[in-house]
Amino acid sequence: MTKDDCKKLVLAIIADIAPDEDLSNVKPEVRLRDQLQLDSMDFLDIVMELRKRNGIEVPEADYGHLASLDSCADYLTPKFNALAAKG
Amino acid sequence: MNTRTHYDVAIIGAGLSGLAAGVRLAHFGKRVCILERHSAPGGLNSFYSLDGRKFDVGLHAVTNFGRPGSRGTPLLKVLRQLRIDRDEIEFCEQRQSRVAFGPAGETSLRFTNDFTVFEGEVARLFPAAMDGFRRLVTLIRSTEPSPAATGVSAREIVRRHVGDPLLEEMLLCPVLFYGGPREHDIDFAQFALLFQAILLEGLARPYEGIRAILRVLLDKYRQAGGERRMNCGVSRIVQRDGRAVSLVLDGGGEVSADEVLSAIGGPETAALIAPAVGTPGNPAPGVITYVETVSVLNREPADLGLGGDTIVFFNDSPRFHYERPGNQVDVRSGVICMPNNFDFGAGRRLPEGLLRVTCLANYDLWAPLPEETYQADKRRWFPLVQGAARRVLGPVADAAFDAATIATDMYTPRTIARFTGRANGAIYGAPVKSPDGATALSNLHLCGTDQGLLGIVGSMLSGISMANRHVLLKAGGVGAAP
Question: Which domain holds residue B324?
Fold first, then answer.
């Protein structure tokens, strides 16, 4: 998985959680919270959907890595690839 | 049937909170079963059929309305958490509503979903209290919408801000009528939550009423793989060492679950636990309950001269008595709902006119009556309840009103208790709430009315937050997809 794939996957999750948000112009380097109306309940849902759909665990201490699309990709892509290598 | 089924989560009660919790849990792969004693879902917000007509019970209006694009509202949270698209439930906004005091409702504060209308009305009638009113609204806006009690009397805070005793009553009236679980007063946190829901956010309803919301919840729940057993009440919660180990069903079967969510009320849940734990009679049930009359009309209420209000909270004098009445019913105050007066869009109308009138009632004076007396008392009170409302709505000749009436119905605290299982028919539950859902058992949690969130949206949010807190956010709460 590339970092771009990973960003698409995270965006797809956000689209399901917050269908009322316009995701066409999300800037990857900007904090998601600063450009979208996402509260703590929504961020927890991103974590839970990652676990449900992809088997990816994000421990609470690492939630900060989900701040922007770029930081999501930096943090999650190795996890996806490690999982794929195992499977 | 002696086979016992084990679930990740069992939910007692298919009302809005139980269904919302179920949708959430099933979505994240939990094995869930909802157990409902009644044949229809909805609990305190349900519907029934009579002579081919469907009537809503509970729902007058959905509070907490937020227009599409509005931010951070409870409604938006519920829709997101349950993965409901805005188009799946079409909300139609109220036209206008009122708080009307005086023998014919002469002192009247209008409100719509635009809060400046209400502010303008307060400024018009209570100019001297306006500064205090603005400070009160600022305080309400800054109060976190949480069910956690502050122990502070709303009446005291309102009085301290607005000074005027009439305005104090007129501000408390809609809030108490739409969610006050105890007599006379309410905790300030709950007052703020309900004031936000009714006046700052606003009122709306789906064209088809409560069924439109229930249908979406049931569809989501089924699609996510949730199980539901209707006509299947829980008669006993068997506990061992402080944990619920088995739910005994009315029919004699049993189910067990790692976690149990109960949406049937705090006292009602405590009463099922065997062997009993805690102090008997604690928590105490509430006493606030209602009668409601329904008149089906052959034309729109407005065309009959009843006016274009959606909801009217009325009270015949400057003092508002929010209490269990000494008689079977207290017709001095009440709530009128004319569902036709929502804005359903150009050319779309409800098939028939409806006038619903709700007044405070005394459960103890209805519950023990023999059937014949009960029916006779209903017939005796019907015109009194309806008459109280018609005094506020303006003059329509009895002959014209009667000629336009094609059907009537009435329900009482006894009806509410029978179909919802609520002690005393107390529709807003116990006076003392459990914001964290805690009960005497470690794996049994409350959701719904007695967790402390009220109204349709509040109930759903309660189910969601209790499912999140007690199941999904626990370590290992969400299993990975296989």
Answer: 287-420
Give me the CATH number covering residue B54: 3.50.50.60
Q: Is the pLDDT of residue A32 over 90?
A: yes
Residue B476 has pLDDT above 70, yes or no: no
> What does pTM read for this prediction?
0.94
Contact call for residues B287 and B324 (beta carbons, < 8 A): yes
- Backbone torsions φ then ψ of B309, nearest 5 degrees: -75, 145
pLDDT tops 80 at residue A87: no
Residues in A touching B68 (Cβ below 8 Å): 20
Residue B439 predicted with pLDDT over 60? yes
Find the Cα–Cα–Cα–Cα dihedral A42, A43, A44, A47, rounded to 10°: 120
Q: Check whether residue B316 and residue B404 sit in a common domain.
A: yes
Do B296 and B270 share a domain, yes or no?
no
Q: Are B109 and B170 in contact (CB under 8 A)?
A: yes
Predicted-complex ipTM score: 0.89
Q: Domain tally for chain B?
A: 3
Q: Which residues of B touch A (CB under 8 A)?
A: 28-29, 68-69, 71-72, 76-77, 79-81, 83, 85-86, 468, 472-473, 478-481
Confidence of residue B474 (pLDDT cuts 50, 70, 90): confident
* Domains by residue range for chain A, with CATH: 3-86 (1.10.1200.10)
**Chain B contact probe: residue of A48, A57, A58 with most B CBs at under 10 A:** A48
